[in-house]
Write a structure and sequence with these properties.
It contains eleven helices and nine strands. The chain is α/β, with parallel strands linked by helices.
């Protein structure tokens, strides 16, 4: 099981493919498996590095709370251990907070940036929709039922019903790899710590001068796609792409479409400034 010592902890990581390095940063409570449907396609073009954030999976789970800056430093340590000076970075949801902190504090380590289904925090972002909030905070029923409800609301309408085998596989993996409660709470603190305007990234993104792709699912109810325009307005060199027919978990829902968008952007191919659903 490959691990490196990074920022004082052991991080589990995987490397697939060859080419320019591409680091994938997972969202809240997810380990590197979150990217398993995208990695094969990306690895045809890039050296893909996925890893378990501190607090989940095979990585260390020190006491929290954690911050985006702390986990960004973990990524820097991972790059150092692998001998990588600069990499493309994709951060999804909470991973997008980490990616923003990485870009703000360690811009020299980035080639290009992909902010995936995320926001800049603070009082001016578009919050989770009320229906999604109601489902994700509903603790009634058994854990598997709650997990299934969370998957359904986090994906595009009708996705779970049209893809029962994939959802069953998803639920099975989560059951076989239960989340460490303390680690989850420590990660949850990352988003909570960014809720004030002073702590948010909103007014710090002007310093992020690397080309940035803002990638969202059309039907994201967890981090609504209205956040894409808000992020783009704060970033000096940003473009938006909206993935039709996808929700918050588009790495599971539409991995091929997500890969095409990322590869097109990282390879420098022309894309519209904004792709509407």
């Amino acid at each position: 099981m490959p691990t490196v010592n990074s920022n004082g902890i052991d991080l589990y990581y995987e490397v697939h493919g060859a080419g320019e390095p591409l680091v994938l940063i997972a969202g809240l409570g997810y380990d590197a498996w979150m990217w398993h449907r995208m990695i094969p396609g990306l690895a045809e073009r890039f050296q893909v590095i996925s890893f378990d954030n501190r607090g989940v999976g095979h990585s260390d789970k020190p006491a929290g709370p954690y911050s985006a800056g702390l986990l960004a430093a973990d990524v820097v340590g991972l790059l150092d251990a692998l001998g990588i000076d600069r990499a493309h970075v994709v951060g999804h949801s909470m991973g997008g907070f980490i990616a923003q902190a990485l870009a703000i504090h360690h811009l020299d380590r980035l080639r290009k940036l992909v902010l995936s289904a995320t926001n800049f925090g603070g009082p001016h972002h578009v919050p989770i929709t009320p229906p999604a909030m109601a489902v994700l905070t509903d603790v009634s029923g058994d854990p598997i039922a709650r997990l299934r409800r969370g998957i359904v609301i986090s994906c595009a309408p009708g996705f779970a019903e049209a893809n029962p085998a994939l959802v069953d596989e998803w639920v099975d993996y989560r059951v076989r790899h239960p989340i460490d409660p303390a680690g989850y709470q420590s990660q949850l603190a990352i988003g909570l710590s960014l809720l004030s305007e002073a702590a948010s990234f909103e007014h710090k993104l002007a310093a992020v001068t690397v080309p940035t792709l803002i990638l969202f699912g059309e039907h994201d109810a967890v981090v609504p796609p209205g956040n894409a325009e808000l992020l783009a307005a704060r970033l000096p060199d940003a473009r938006i792409e909206i993935l039709p027919g996808a929700g918050h978990f588009f790495p599971f829902e539409v991995p091929e479409a997500a890969n095409r968008a990322i590869i097109r952007f990282l390879s420098g191919a022309a894309t519209p400034a904004v792709t509407e659903p």
